[in-house]
Amino acid sequence: MSYSSELPVGLVAVVAAPVLFVATLPWTIQSLFRLALSLRYRLVVVGLEHVPRRGPVLLVSNHVTWIDGFILAAVLPRQGRALVNADYIAMPGLSHLARWVGLIPVASKGPHAQRAAIRAGQEALDRGYVLGIFPEAQLSRNGLTGAFLRGLEMILRGREHVPVVPVFLDNLWGSIFSFSGGSTFQKRPNGWRRTVIISFGPPIPPPVTTFAVRQGVVEAGVRAFAHRPGPSAPLETIDPALPRLEVPGLGLLAASTADWDRGGIRQTGQKPGTLGQAVPGVALRVVDDDGAPLPADADGHLQALLAGRPDWLPTGLRARLDRDGFVRLADPS
Q1: What's the pTM?
Q2: Looking at the predicted structure, is the pLDDT value of residue 12 above 70?
Q3: CB under 8 Å to 96, separation ≥6 — which residues?
Q4: Residue 179 gets which letter from DSSP?
Q5: How far apart are CA 175 and CA 185, in angstroms?
Q6: Residue 315: C-alpha distances to residues 249, 321, 323 (Å)
Q7: Quick one: which of 248, 314, 243, 255 has its CA closest to 279?
C-alpha cells in the first residue's frame, strides 16, 4: 500500500496525509501491522501512560515517513479514527474496507473541503474516539520538525476537555520511506533492523495553541532521542555555512538547512535573522524572569532540554522562538 501526504498548503492539517493516522484498525489488523513491521523495525514505546484509556483524545505527531500512521497504529493501546483523502479509498471494495477499519474519507480539495475535514475530526472526538493528525501537512524534507498548521485549533474549538497528547516518531530519518538523500524509495535499507522510538508526551496544558503543541512534540522527541541505540550522526541536511547556535558546554542547539521547493512542495529550512531550529535531541524554550514558558515571538531567557539530561538548562542568552520553532536572539538593547 502506498500513499501520499502532499495536499494544497491551504488545507487544514487533518487532511495532510491519506492516512494521517490508522490506529482505528481492529486488534487483529493491528497485530498484523506489528508483525509486518517487526521484520524491519524494532519498536520502542516511551510514555504510553500519557494516552488516556477512554474518552476522546487528539494525538499530534511529527511526520517523517510514508508509514508513520501504521507505526502509530501498531503501538496504541486502543482504537481510534483517521481522516483520509477520499481519492485514495475510492476504488471498488476499498471504500467499504476503509470504513470498516475506521477511516473517515474527506475531500482533499474544493470549497467545502476544509470545513468538512474539521467537522469530521470534531465528530470523531465527540463520539469519544482517539483522533490522530500530522499537522506538518507533509513529510519532513530535512529531518527536522517543520511548521504546524492551525487545523488542530479549529478541531478543538469548544472541546477544551479533550486531552491533546504530543507524539514523536524518532530514528526514522534515513529509512527508505523518508526523504533522506532527497527522495523516498530510492535508497538501500540501512542495516537489517532499525530501532524506532515512539515517544508519547504528557497532555498539553490549556490553553492549547499550535505553538504549544509543536513544543510538546519536540520535547517528546528529546525523550525519544535518549533511547536511541548508540551514537547518532548529525543530520546531513544541516548546512554549516548557514546560521546555527552553539553554546559552550551545551553544544549545537539549533541549525539551518536549505529550503525545499520541488514539485509544488515548499518547506522552510532557514529564515533571515534566525539561527535555525532545534536539532535532533534538543528542545528549546523561552521563559520569563520567573521561569514560566512564554508564547511564540516573546523575548525572554532561552533554555535548552538535552537528551539524557533531566532538566531545562540555561543558555545565558535572551531570545525568542517564532511559531515554527526558529530561534532569534533578542536585541541586546
Answers
A1: 0.86
A2: no
A3: none
A4: -
A5: 9
A6: 9, 14, 20
A7: 255
Could you tell me which residues come within 8 angstroms of residue 282 by beta carbon, excluding any fewer than 6 positions away? Answer: 222, 252, 253, 254, 304, 305, 306, 307
Record the cell numbers describing residue 232, joined without a space. 547518532
CA distance 262 to 48: 37
Q: Is 7 helix (H, G, I), strand (E, B) or coil?
A: coil
C-alpha R_g of the chain? 19
Q: What are the cell numbers at 328? A: 532569534
Contact 131, 21 (CB under 8 A): yes
For 208-269, the DSSP string reads P-HHHHHHHHHHHHHHHHTTSSS--PPPTTB-TTS-EEEETTTEEEEE-B--EEETTEEE--
**Cα–chain center distance at 168:** 6
pLDDT tens track for 269-283: 999 999 999 999 999
SS3 117: helix
